[in-house]
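Customer escalation, tier 2.

The customer says the design service returned an amino acid string that "doesn't look like it belongs to this structure." They asked us to rerun it and document both sides in this ticket. The original C-alpha cells are below, unchanged.
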C-alpha cells in the first residue's frame, strides 16, 4: 500500500547562522577520521554544539562560550578566518542546490561568515533595555566590556573581581556584599551576562556585548570595533584609546598593580592563622589562647593553602582599612597525627604537598603534632614515619615534630620573632605572582628572595583550589591520581607531553600495542633521574589507550 501523500505548505528549514565555521569543522572532522585520529570526536562534539547555537559568531574567540570549544580550537578558527579574509572571501559562498525563500535575500544577511552582524533586539532584551547612568548594571557591563577588549585576559571576571573593581572605580553603586547584587542578577535575567563554572565566572553574551559597546559609544568614547579583532596583525596587541582608559579607570596601572615598597620602620611582622585552626572546640581554640599567652601578634583569616603564614603589614597605610601586606617566604602546614592518618587515606596528603610546592613561597614547614597514643591510630606507626621522612627527604620540606599544642604554639612564636629579626632593616618590595624559576609562572629567579615578596592578595588568590587552571596543571592533577605516580613523576611526564592531546598523539604514532606500553618507560624522573619503568608505563598506556572499561 502506497504511503499517504502529505498535503500542505512545506516548512522552510532554518538558515545556519555560522556556515563557514560549520564547513571548516566538518572538513577537520573528516580529515581526522580519514587518518584515524581521535580528534575527530572533538570536532564532532564542537560541530554538534555549534549547530545548536542560534546566533552568529564574529570570531573564533566568541565561540569559546560554547560547549567543547577550547582555546586551541578557537585559535584554529581565528587563523582559518584570517586566511579566508586575506583571500578576499568576505561572505560565505552560496550553497548549491535550490534556494529556499529565506535564502533569496541579500547574501550578507543570509550566509554569515566573518562580517559583524548585530542580533535583532528582542522585547525585554538588550534592544529595549538601557541601564541608567551611574547605575550598578551600567558599571558591570562596562567592566566586562573592558575585560573583553583586553587581549591578555580571559574575557571573564569572578564575582570577587567584579566587586573589587566596582568598589575601586564606581564606589557609589558597589553593593555592600557580593551575596546580594541586584544589578548582576538583573543582567543575568535579561540574558546580557552569563555565568559558567564553579566558582562562578561572568562574561558578556552577544546581546550584552552589543549593548556594552553602545553604552561606551554613547558616552563619546572612541572604542575598538570588536568585530574586527581577528584582522589585527599577528603579534600586535590592539591599543585602547586614552579617553576610554581615563573614563573607566582602565589604565595600565589598574590592570597591573603598582609595586608595593615597605621601608624599614614602615611595617610590622604579623602571623596569619587560617580560620580552620580556630573553629570548633578543644585543641583548635586552645592554639589561639596559647598564642595570646605568648604575646604573638596574629590575625585570623581564610588561607587557601597552608595553616600559618607571616605578612609584613604597613603600619601607616594611606587606607587604614586596606593596609599593604607582603607575604614572607615561610609557610607552615600543621598536622596532628590523627589528621595525618586521615589525609593519607583520603589522598589529601599528596594533594596538599603538591599545592604547597606551587604556592609561591620557598620555605615550607611541615609541623607534625603528637596526639594521643600511636597505637590508637588507623595506620601503623611505621607508615606515618615513612610518610614524614618522604616529606622531608623527597619533597624538601622542613619537618618539625612537637609533643603537644603548647609546643606547637611556642614554635610558631619562635618563628615569628626570628622572622622579625631576619627582616629588620630591610626594604621589602612586591613581585608578580609565581614560583621563582618555575617555567609556567613567568617570574624569573629573584635576585634577593628575602626582599622580593608576594602581596597577600596575589598569594591567596593564586593558591585558590578552584581557580582557573591551565591544561598542564589539570593534566598533572589527573596523573597523580594514578597509583604509583608521584608529583615528580607527573612533572617529568608533563615536561615530555604537556597536554593529554600530545600524549594521545604519541600513542597514535606507535605501530604496535607493545610499543605503546613501553612508550613512557624510559622517561627520567626524580633527583636520581631514574626511568619511569615498564610497569607504570603499561598502566598509563592501558588508561589512555583502552576503549573498553578498565578491569
Amino acid at each position: 500500500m502506497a504511503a499517504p501523500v502529505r498535503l500542505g505548505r512545506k516548512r522552510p528549514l532554518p538558515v545556519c547562522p555560522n556556515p563557514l565555521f560549520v564547513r571548516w569543522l566538518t572538513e577537520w572532522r573528516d580529515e581526522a577520521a580519514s587518518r584515524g585520529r581521535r580528534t575527530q570526536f572533538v570536532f564532532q562534539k564542537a560541530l554538534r554544539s555549534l549547530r545548536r547555537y542560534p546566533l552568529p559568531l564574529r570570531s573564533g574567540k566568541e565561540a569559546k562560550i560554547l560547549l567543547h570549544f577550547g582555546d586551541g580550537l578557537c585559535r584554529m578558527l581565528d587563523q582559518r578566518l584570517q586566511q579566508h579574509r586575506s583571500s578576499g572571501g568576505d561572505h560565505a559562498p552560496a550553497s548549491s542546490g535550490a534556494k529556499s525563500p529565506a535564502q533569496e535575500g541579500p547574501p550578507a544577511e543570509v550566509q554569515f561568515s566573518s562580517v559583524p552582524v548585530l542580533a535583532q533586539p528582542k522585547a525585554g532584551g538588550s534592544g529595549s533595555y538601557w541601564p541608567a547612568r551611574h547605575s550598578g548594571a551600567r558599571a558591570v557591563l562596562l567592566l566586562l566590556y573592558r575585560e573583553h577588549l583586553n587581549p591578555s585576559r580571559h574575557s571573564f571576571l569572578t564575582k570577587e573581581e567584579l566587586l573589587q573593581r566596582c568598589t575601586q572605580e564606581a564606589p557609589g553603586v558597589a553593593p555592600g556584599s557580593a551575596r546580594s547584587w541586584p544589578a548582576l542578577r538583573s543582567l543575568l535575567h535579561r540574558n546580557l551576562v552569563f555565568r559558567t563554572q564553579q566558582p562562578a565566572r561572568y562574561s558578556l553574551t552577544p546581546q550584552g556585548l552589543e549593548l556594552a559597546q553602545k553604552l561606551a559609544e554613547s558616552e563619546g568614547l572612541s572604542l575598538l570595533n570588536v568585530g574586527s579583532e581577528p584582522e589585527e596583525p599577528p603579534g600586535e596587541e590592539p591599543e585602547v584609546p586614552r579617553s576610554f582608559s581615563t573614563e573607566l579607570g582602565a589604565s595600565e596601572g589598574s590592570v597591573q598593580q603598582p609595586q608595593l615598597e615597605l621601608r624599614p620602620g614602615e611595617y610590622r611582622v604579623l602571623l596569619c592563622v587560617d580560620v580552620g585552626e580556630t573553629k570548633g572546640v578543644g585543641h583548635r581554640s586552645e592554639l589561639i589562647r596559647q598564642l595570646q599567652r605568648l604575646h604573638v601578634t596574629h590575625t585570623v583569616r581564610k588561607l587557601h593553602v597552608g595553616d600559618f603564614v607571616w605578612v609584613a603589614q604597613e603600619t601607616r597605610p594611606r587606607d587604614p582599612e586596606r593596609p599593604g601586606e607582603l607575604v614572607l617566604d615561610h609557610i607552615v602546614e600543621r598536622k596532628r597525627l590523627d589528621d595525618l592518618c586521615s589525609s593519607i587515606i583520603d589522598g589529601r596528603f599528596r594533594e596538599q604537598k603538591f599545592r604547597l610546592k606551587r604556592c609561591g613561597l620557598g620555605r615550607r614547614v611541615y609541623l607534625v603534632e603528637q596526639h594521643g597514643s600511636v597505637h590508637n591510630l588507623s595506620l601503623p606507626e611505621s607508615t606515618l614515619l615513612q610518610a614524614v621522612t618522604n616529606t622531608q627527604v623527597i619533597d624538601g620540606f622542613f619537618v618539625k615534630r612537637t609533643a603537644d599544642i603548647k609546643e606547637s604554639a611556642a614554635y610558631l612564636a619562635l618563628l615569628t620573632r626570628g622572622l622579625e629579626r631576619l627582616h629588620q632593616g630591610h626594604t621589602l618590595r612586591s613581585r608578580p605572582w609565581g614560583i621563582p624559576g618555575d617555567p609556567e609562572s613567568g617570574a624569573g629567579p629573584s635576585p634577593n628572595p628575602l626582599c622580593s615578596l608576594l602581596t597577600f592578595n596575589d598569594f591567596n588568590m593564586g593558591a585558590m583550589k578552584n581557580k582557573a587552571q591551565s591544561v598542564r596543571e589539570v593534566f598533572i592533577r589527573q596523573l597523580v591520581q594514578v597509583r604509583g605516580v608521584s608529583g615528580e613523576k607527573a612533572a617529568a611526564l608533563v615536561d615530555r607531553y604537556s597536554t593529554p592531546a600530545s600524549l594521545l598523539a604519541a600513542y597514535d604514532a606507535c605501530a604496535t600495542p607493545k610499543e605503546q606500553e613501553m612508550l613512557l618507560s624510559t622517561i627520567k624522573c626524580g633527583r636520581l633521574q631514574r626511568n619511569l619503568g615498564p610497569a607504570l608505563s603499561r598502566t598509563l598506556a592501558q588508561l589512555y589507550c583502552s576503549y573498553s572499561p578498565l578491569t
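Tier 2 assessment: The sequence is consistent with the input. Residues 90-126, 222-256, 435-447 have pLDDT under 50 and may be disordered. The longest helix spans residues 405-423. Sent an explanation to the customer and offered a walkthrough call.
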